[in-house]
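Write out the 3D structure for:
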Amino acid sequence: MDTRTQQILMPLVLFLPLVSLAIYLIPIYLLRRKAYARAQDYFVSSEHTPPGVIRNSSVGYALKMATFGPFFVWGASADFWPAIIYSTFFALGVGLIYIVRRPMLAFMQSALHEDRSITVHDFIARQHGNDPRVRLFASCLTVFAIFALVIGEALVVATFLKPILSDNAAATSVFVSGFLALMALYAMLSGNSGVMRSAQSQLGMLYLGLFGATALLLYLLISALRPMSPHSTFAMVFVAACCAVMPFYRRSVYVDTSPLRTANSNTDPSGREPLGGRLFRRFEKILNACISVCAAWVIVLAAMQLYSDGLPAIARESAAALQTGTIRSPT
């Protein structure tokens, strides 16, 4: 790629994240409130939030760049075992939370009813006799984990922006600082209700980007008319299975499209949803359809390639990919 082409594409690469950022800010603006009666309202959803939004925001919160980034590195190096082990232990952790959910739900119900803290360290302390030393230790661990996560996110964003901004360290620092300020702005304007709505919008854009990019890469790979490596065959089988399961599991609803209503006067006097909310929900419905189309496109392209290879070749190459591990490029 020549220098002129890079100069043309770099603004486009920077423009697309800015468009996504504007989309994330729409629910924050629509659900803004003039004032909060309690400090708790900033962190707890004081307004009615549909279960679908809570579920999607929880998934979007887990799929952060610091968590998701290593998968791209492992995929680029064709090192599948770390990704498999990582995913297995993540599933075990989610299963453990599901097993011990009853005391956690009882704690949250009691804390919300009595207007107490619902933090993890308070839950741990109350499970051990409400010992202040346990609460202090758990609080320190929580703060340390949050700082580590924020630093990891900032480093990933800086790594992504550095080539776009021509390795300008000052501009990169300004952009990263702006992103960190936006994180605080989310909660200040609309509380946790708006944050969850914004998080599920990020999840929808993530699905669209992943499925769309995968479909484009598969098209380029197939159109090259070159024999694929065992790692490519195994990856294609996994991607096709994932894209087949996701629409079925999610029922083609990746973003909740329930009405956006607030408790203040942002709604119309007649009780109808604001025009901005209706337009944004229409966009979310279109986004759901686009994600399903991209997933179907991936399935069709992968099925065409896998059908031409045949089942024996697919099984043989997939087993070879798991046995050989990481591809080492020649030096």
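The radius of gyration is 23 Å.
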